[in-house]
Every structure is written in C-alpha cells, then in structure tokens.
Amino acid sequence: MNFWLETLQVIVLSIYYNVEAIIKCVIPPKKKDVTGEIVLITGAGSGIGRLMALEFAGMNVALVLWDISQEGMRETARLTKERGASRVHYFLCDCSDKSEVYRVAEQVKREVGDVSILINNAGIVTGKKFMDAPDSLIEKTLEVNTMSHFWTYKAFLPAMVDNNHGHLVCISSSAGLIGVNGLADYCASKFAAIGFAESVALELLATGKDGVKTTIVCPYLINTGMFDGCSSKWPTLCPILEPVYVAKSVVDAILVDQSYLLLPRSMYLLMALKSLLPSKQSVVLGKYLGAFNFMDSFQGRQKKRS
Question: Is 42 helix (H, G, I), strand (E, B) or coil?
Fold first, then answer.
C-alpha cells in the first residue's frame, strides 16, 4: 500500500472512529451477554473485588474468587450466593507468588474450567516516601501490583487466544497515569501495570485475536480504607469515589468492551492537560490540586486489597 493510500485510510478511519465515539456518548452501546462465562477476580475477599463479584452474581456466570484471606473470600461467596450466584468457587492464592499462581490456576482449570474474564484487582500500598520505604515493601508492592498480572495472564491467556474469546481487565489507578508525591513505589507499579496491559492488548490485535478484549481501569481515591486519612483538596473536581459506584462502572465497562475507564470523568481532562501543559505549569497545577500533600495524613493499612 502506498503512502497516499495509507494516509487516506488513516484520515477516513480517524473520522469514523471519532464520530462513533461521539455517538456512543449519546446512545450507550448494547451490553454483551456474559452468560456461562468464567469470571476470575483477584483480591476478591474485600473492597472493590467483593463488590465486582456481587455485580456479576446475577449474570449467570461462574465466579472464581482469589485472595489471601480465606475468611474474606468465604464472606464474598456467601454474599454472592444471596444475590443469585449459583456457581461460586474460591481459592487461597498469594498473587505475588508466581509458583502459587500457576499451581492454583491449574486447580481452577481442572475444577471449574478455562477462565474467560480475568480481573486483576489485587493491590497494596506502602504509603511511605521513597527513602523511608523498606526494600521489602517496595518489592512486595511491585510483586502484587505489577508482576501478578504477568503470572495470571501467562496462566489464563493461552486458552482465550485459542478460542479467540475472553476479556482481560487491569485495575490500575490514576496514580498509574500521573506521579504522586509520597507514592513512588505505588505509582511505579501502577504505571507498569498499564504499560503491560496496553502492550498485551496490541499483541492480541497484531496477531488477529480481536475476540480477546481488554479494559484498563484508572480510578482516583476510593473509599475502601486503602487510603484512609487521605483527602481531596477539591472534592467537586476530584471526589473520593464510592466503592459501589466504581465496581458498577468497571463491570459496565467490561460489558460494553470499553478499552479505558478513568474515574471520575475529570481525570480525562487532567490527563489531557498533563500532555499539553509545560512541565512547570503542570507543577503549579499539581500544587493547586493538592498532589504535593496528598499523603500527609495517610493512615491506610499497608497490605489491604484495593
């Protein structure tokens, strides 16, 4: 294909996809039927993981719950069954341990089947400035928030590729888009998770496996206890998000094959400004939004699932 033809193709497709995006803002796309899918959620013993499981409970799917808390998973399983879930399985699994992920993944395949919707939700935060954070906590943050995605993808993606059907979900953070004072290791882990998820999505498209969908989720602070003590300087612009709202938004994004979900919507504007503004002006804006004292009152627990 010559230069002019390729250029024309890009222009036409760009116009088409922009018009399509505008139409979708006015007319919501139809939600896909997930009946019979096997949905695995990491960090499902509490917080957003539990709430997403509850959202899926009435959709006639098989739920697979992973967490390091047996008690938490047992409670999530009980609640989902009350909501109408008929097939709920839970497995104790430390997602930061590669060998454990592979071992439990094989158990899931034997006892439940091939996972077709994988939601990487497990996450931790140290809440310490870079020089104050022990090496062990930095390593653990990267192992849970980033490397676990590598291992779960390795375990479950081959079946999705073989069937050209499935959905990969990366629960990242707005801290994976914009660096935050006092969250160096957390931001690094979330930036890495996004880069990894985007690259795998491109690999799937490049190999013609467009039936395997991907969704990257970047929420602002969520009121789950993970960031207890932190507050938003301008809550109208960047509100602390309610967990139920986030869980419902994530599941809705999965059902319409939305590639990126930023919450709240103001994050789309802030990301655009980050790309367009001079670096010094970005610093001024960061101070105005409270990014420099964001973690001053942090009281969250160091090993809480997001």
Answer: strand
Cα(8)–Cα(256) distance, integer angstroms:
29
288 classed as catalytic? no
Enumerate the β-bridge partners of residue 215.
169
List Cβ neighbours of 292 (8 Å cut-off, separation of 6 or more): 181, 286
Instruction: Give the global pTM.
Output: 0.90
**Closest to 162 in 3D by CA, of 201, 209, 198, 115:** 209
**From CA 49, how far away is CA 247, in angstroms rounded?**
8
The answer to whether residues 242 and 298 touch, using CB atoms and an 8 Å cutoff, is no
Contact 258, 215 (CB under 8 A): yes
pLDDT score for 299: 54
- Spot the catalytic one: 186, 260, 268, 288: 186
pLDDT under 50 in the chain at which residues?
A: 301-306
**CA–CA distance, 268 with 194 (Å, rounded to integer):** 16
End-to-end CA distance of the chain: 47
Q: Which two tokens stand for residue 191?
A: 């930036």
- Would you list the DSSP string of 60-71? S-EEEEEES-HH
pLDDT value, residue 236: 75
Strand ranges of the sheet holding 38-42, from the earlier edge strand across to the other edge: 87-92, 62-67, 38-42, 117-120, 166-171, 212-219, 260-263
CA 268 to chain centre: 16
Instruction: Say what the pLDDT of residue 297 is.
Output: 60
Give, in degrees to the nearest 5, the angle at Cα 263 between 258 and 268.
80
For residue 303, the model assigns a pLDDT of 43
Of 193, 183, 185, the residue nearest 218 (C-alpha): 193
